[in-house]
Amino acid sequence: APSAAPGVPHHVQAEAAANVGEPTDRTPGGSPESLPGKRFTLTAGTATVTVSGQSVAAWAFDGQVPGPELTATVGDVLEVTLRNKDIARGVTLHWHGYDVPNSQDGVPGVTQDAVLPGQEFVYRFRADQAGTYWYHTHAVSDIGVKMGLYGVLVVRPGPMSGVDRVIAAHTLSSVSLPEPAQEPVAAGTPMRLRLINTDSATHRYALAGSPFQVAAIDGMDLSQPPAVSETVISIPAGGRYDLVFSAPAAPIALSVDNRVVYSTGALTPSTSGWPVLDPLSYGTAQDPPWNRYDKEFTLVLDRGLDLRGLLPRYAHTVNGAADPDIPPQVVHLGDTVKFTIVNRSLVVHPWHLHGHHVLVLSRNGKAATGSPLWLDSFDVRPGEVWEVTFKADNPGMWANHCHNLAHAEQGMLLHLMYA
Ligand code: C2O
Ligand code: CU
To answer: What domains sit in the chain, N to C, each tagged with a CATH number?
Structure first.
């Protein structure tokens, strides 16, 4: 089999592999029994959980927030049975950043009905993308995710070595961030910290005590990432960064918004004045894998008045319209597609396309010069213009929305539709 090229998503690689007999479809072939499998059951229900010493009313998978960490190895078939005990408004599982077959995408009203109390739904897909992902309900997602219906999905390329930890920053009602974890680690141990922002706002992460490399963003390996130190990483809503380094003799500490959430010993870092890493501008020049586009779409993000209800209310709009009135973006299988995303509003919109990773071409007219960046979640800040491209290679009807989930509920959601 061809070796995986870093920075190129699996579906692009799958094309290159097509003539050597590699599977190119995303649905598991053969009978489930004939494939290495990982089976999980997640039961959604109301629960009371303890966060920072406080009892908080939550909606939880298996009674815990975040839900159980699902782990698999590349090639496994994942089978996840979702049961709903008593979430009256229904629940689904969306595999954020995982480019699953459309039928497994977990969007109620689009790919399935919401799973109501007493019902269940079985998700099945092959884990052919290594990396850091997460799952969350997509039914009344703004409330559902805030109440706690989310968890971690990690797919490893093979057996793990060293320390491999997931740090998921979250907001549960008014209480945010995980309990600080401290573990002693021997000097020289290979470390991988997988940072996941499951919140609707951007958060700032900082690693003190060691230089590190950003090995992957949004589950996609970067090509030759430089070592950096004393640098803040700004992670958009929904986004993931994997940091790798070798444990130094002295302690390290990882903080989120200046609060330590993981450390290997007592260390009170001061991270003020650290610059923020810009992943678009480190590394070497890149050439896009294609330079003509079959379909080009412009998305202008703004705020407007929604006059359809009894009372006018503010909506977050795309091209002047709000969901469900935004026309779908129609593409054909195999099209190269370009999005130009313009933020004319005064707030950040973390953009998220389901079922595809997009290659960043430019921001504010400045071409991306770093490692090819294949993202599924990126902050489009006020006044910014992003150009991104992808190959339409995963047929279906896909949500394309702001991952500030309140904005999505208030209209900033449309669909990419394969004709
Ligand atoms: Cu993580 Cu449509 O969402
Ligand atoms: Cu938004």
So the answer is: 10-156 (2.60.40.420), 163-277 (2.60.40.420), 295-418 (2.60.40.420)
